[in-house]
């Protein structure tokens, strides 16, 4: 039933432009090519159309092209999910030049990269909380190919996080007690978590949020050392001679608009400023999408259907009333 209703709402999101009013005008949203961004872009589209009378066009893009185009060409009007660490130089220049503005943190927890253990394992072993606890209990994470050591599931070769994990591995002196395992691919890394969950076995490794995987398989973050802005840059280098034993930097995930849009659409900009989704909510939406092979608009429909108290809090009463009426 939930899938059927979400699909109906998702279809409404696709065609809601036909009922848009004329007072807002045409608005373009850059729809990034990953799940959470697709959810946010489609939710924005629906609310802007039925709540504010905009005629919204979704433009398929990704982070760097979207931000570069906003700075250089003034379009699209909105980028619904920008991981600022990935485009910091371009974004900061756009802000300094008065071409783009931040509309706030669309993911209230930010993007999270970290090392994790399964929740069922954490519940059964509440004494294992920090990286030092994990190292002291390496035998619990036994490597099936080398039982003398534990196994740490890292990123696949070629990913930036592989280099960071290698340096953290050295910074914590883990070589004596753990093997630094390359899962080969994103699918291999996800499959290792699924297998551990199926068998309720120990697992220790890297992952990021928000993702469908962490929505489907709850994990608990292992406490690493504090992030250090001076020490971390070395961790990103292949040949770091002095790796820093600190966690990944927090990644701000913002909605951004052109300055022109902010100035000409004050009410709509206020709505964008209030969008704030916790990672556990987005993880759950993405997990539902994966289980149901749902498109971005259908996942947005599921979000609207399931988390009404959240999105209503972003809207003035009169706009919320219009959106609710459109769903009936």
Automatic annotation (TrEMBL):
Keyword hit for Endoplasmic reticulum: no
GO terms, molecular function: transmembrane transporter activity
InterPro entries: ABC_Gly_betaine_transp_sub-bd
ABC-type glycine betaine transport system substrate-binding domain ranges (all copies): 26-305
Entry superkingdom: Bacteria
A matching Pfam family: OpuAC
Cleaved signal peptide residues: 1-22
CDD domains: PBP2_HisX_like
Keywords, sorted A to Z: Signal
Keyword tRNA processing: no
Protein known as: ABC transporter substrate-binding protein
Species in which this protein is naturally found: Entotheonella factor
Lineage, uppermost ranks: Bacteria, Pseudomonadati, Nitrospinota/Tectimicrobiota group, Candidatus Tectimicrobiota, Candidatus Entotheonellia
